[in-house]
Design brief:
Chain B: It is found in: Cell membrane. The complex is a heterodimer of chains A (257) and B (277). Chain A has 257 residues and is α/β, with parallel strands linked by helices. Helices cover 42% and strands 23% of the residues of chain A. Chain B has 277 residues and is mainly alpha-helical. The chains are: A alpha/beta (257), B mainly alpha (277).
């Protein structure tokens, strides 16, 4: 645990130092010259946002976009503890609320995309899972996200709507950990986002189920109060909610807001 | 003429040394101490003392603590069973590639624990090299079980034991063993009656370090054994998940872990290992 805390501290320091540099040079010279935009985003946005970051850098010569991807709750905690982020994109309104309640958001968060849960099964489906009802079967090894993280909260809702009682063998710390355990075949099934199955590229198979529609995760995005690069933050958010952003996100498997 | 005079001057200097530490060393030493101790004090300062009692008595906290103590103890037992013979082999048997083997034994010390967890999954998982066979032959699987937690902790903690015991064995006086051999004792008897008692303080020190390391294990455990209250959720895992939503609860859990670790390292180390110094 101490190791992890130390890593977080080191990372925050690194981000701090980076932003300090950017702040120092921002006053001088041409617009955008040598600035760094810092975006904190949910881990599930990794692929889509990395692509949007490159687009943004292309349109703003001299600007670097730096991402910190991670569990939404962890990122939210870091922002409320003063991590110098410019933009925060969360995987659920609940984690965003942590930031807005603390007065660390500038303006109201906008929902820019949505994600749907699917059942992920290993290649070949050894547990013979076809529908959500199968998850309650005795002896089937199911892994879910911990209820403290957005994918876990969504899983609880979806399973409750489906009326299936699942006794998972593990409650993982994030959705990528669920994916790993299913991909390695240690678990027979897990609930992950549709985008995760897409990003896993054939390692796991996704099974859609209608009850997932009742547990769709809204992804809000907001400019952080006291953002070191406030103007750029606004422009990045416009890119994400705009047509280009929507196209990239839908290719990754996200749904329109 | 000059030699004895210099020797006596060195002796005088040495006598005075303990009372006169050079500031060049003392300042960074104090800074180092502060760096290690201040974060722990931070926990104490920020702890929600008023609600501490009720938070501690929550079923989930007690369950995680019980599981942590149980698995760390079992892991230490496993390490003793396998680690002492391993240390003896490293210290007393000459074999080719001894250097390489010694390096391999200490790899878990520097390996990121998450990597250790992944490695364990690939070997002992349900589809792993060994785990697959165990599952087919005996229906035995480790991931998501308390046994899996014990294995993950033992993997990370065993090097601490092996290094301590090997060091003690190398420092031990071989003449006692030779004397026992000339008196007709067999190898196994010598090991049990002479070698083991000789290195007992080293074994005790290693066990304590091993136990404390197992107690704090996080990465390999959550990767290999998963996280389920009462079965695989140890204290460090509970702390991590509490941090997601309730930092106050995480501080309380951290405090418990800190108290247990400090108590064990301070009290037991002095009592059991005092004689080794």
């Amino acid at each position: 645990m101490f190791k992890r805390t130390a890593a977080v501290a080191a990372l925050s320091l690194a981000v701090l130092a980076g932003c300090g540099d950017a702040g120092d040079s921002s006053g001088s010279g041409e617009p955008g010259g040598g600035k760094t935009l810092t975006v904190f985003a949910a881990a599930s946005l990794t692929e889509a946002f990395t692509e949007l970051g490159r687009t943004f850098e292309g349109a703003h010569p001299g600007v670097k976009v730096r991402f910190q991807f991670g569990g939404s709750s962890t990122l939210a905690q870091q922002i409320t503890q003063g991590a110098p982020a410019d933009v925060f994109a969360a995987a659920s309104p609940a984690t965003m609320k942590t930031v807005t309640d603390a007065g660390d958001a500038s303006g109201r968060p906008q929902t820019f995309t949505r994600n749907r849960l699917v059942i992920a099964v290993p290649k070949g489906d050894p547990g013979k899972v076809a529908k959500v009802g199968d998850l309650g079967r005795r002896g089937l090894k199911v892994v879910l996200c911990a209820v403290q993280v957005p994918c876990g909260a969504a899983a609880e809702t979806a399973l409750a709507v489906a009326g299936v009682e699942v006794e998972p063998v593990s409650r993982e710390k994030d959705v990528k950990a669920v994916l790993t355990k299913v991909g390695l075949g240690e678990a027979d099934a897990g609930l992950v986002y549709r985008t995760d199955v897409k990003a896993a590229g054939g390692e796991v198979t996704g099974i859609e189920f209608p009850e997932a529609a009742k547990a769709i995760n809204d992804y809000p995005i907001v400019e952080v109060a006291k953002a070191p690069q406030g103007a750029l933050a606004g422009e990045f958010i416009r890119l994400v909610v705009g047509e280009q952003g929507r196209a990239v996100l839908s290719r990754a498997g996200f749904e329109g807001p | 003429m000059t030699r004895p005079r210099r020797a006596s001057r060195e002796a005088r200097e040495a006598d005075r040394l303990p009372g006169r530490p050079p500031w060049v060393l003392l300042a960074p030493a104090l800074l180092g101490l502060a760096f290690l101790v201040l974060p722990l004090l931070g926990l104490l300062v920020r702890a929600p003392w008023s609600t501490l009692g009720t938070r501690l008595l929550q079923a989930q906290v007690l369950e995680a603590l019980r599981l942590s103590l149980l698995t760390a103890t079992l892991a230490t037992g496993l390490c003793l069973l396998l680690g002492v013979p391993l240390a003896w082999t490293l210290a007393r048997v000459r074999f080719p590639a001894a250097r390489l083997v010694r390096a391999l034994v200490t790899v878990p010390l520097v390996l990121p624990p998450v990597v250790g967890g992944v490695a364990l999954l690939l070997v002992l998982g349900r589809r792993g090299l060994v785990g697959g066979w165990l599952d087919r032959a005996f229906g035995l699987t480790f991931p998501f079980t308390t046994a899996g937690v014990v294995l993950a902790e033992a993997f990370v903690a065993m090097p601490f034991l092996v290094i301590s015991v090997e060091g003690a064995l190398r420092a031990a006086d071989l003449r006692y063993e030779e004397a026992a051999a000339t008196l007709g004792a067999g190898r196994w008897t010598i090991f049990r009656r002479v070698t083991l008692p000789l290195v007992a303080p080293g074994v005790a020190a290693g066990s304590i370090l091993c136990w404390a390391r197992a107690l704090g294990e996080f990465g390999a455990t959550i990767t290999f054994a998963g996280n389920f209250p009462g079965r695989t959720q140890t204290m460090p895992l509970a702390v991590y998940l509490a941090l997601e939503t309730d930092p106050q609860a995480a501080i309380v859990l951290s405090l418990v872990l800190l108290a247990v670790s400090v108590a064990v390292l301070a009290v037991l180390r002095d009592r059991w290992v005092g004689g080794a110094r």
